[in-house]
Design brief:
By secondary structure, the protein is an all-alpha fold. It is built from 4 helices and no strands. The protein has a single domain, classed as Protein of unknown function DUF3243 (Cytochrome Bc1 Complex, Chain D, domain 2, Orthogonal Bundle), CATH 1.10.760. 77% of the residues lie in helices and 0% in strands.
């Protein structure tokens, strides 16, 4: 089963990767830019597997660049908050 099949597993996967990046010294701005790139890739190449991903994909597809950065930053905040 892919981590994309279940939104909870996806958030846990992101949380683990975020924690690793921070532990390795990656700056918040780099994390934000990477999250935006990943969001763009997922929106363009991966079919949403659950309702949460569908909402995110729909939001991403109507967002301008500034809004896409905001969505990516909110996902980073969400997984940071959930990991506490």
């Amino acid at each position: 089963m892919s981590v994309l099949d279940n939104f909870g597993q996806w958030k846990e996967f992101l949380s683990n990767r975020l924690e690793h990046a921070q532990h390795e010294g990656m700056e918040q701005s780099a994390i934000s830019n990477l999250a935006t790139e990943i969001g763009g890739y997922l929106a363009s190449h991966v079919e949403p597997k659950n309702p949460e991903e569908k909402v995110l994909a729909d939001l991403w597809n109507v967002a301008d660049e500034q809004e896409k950065h905001a969505i990516a930053n909110m996902m980073v905040k969400l997984v940071q908050h959930d990991s506490k």
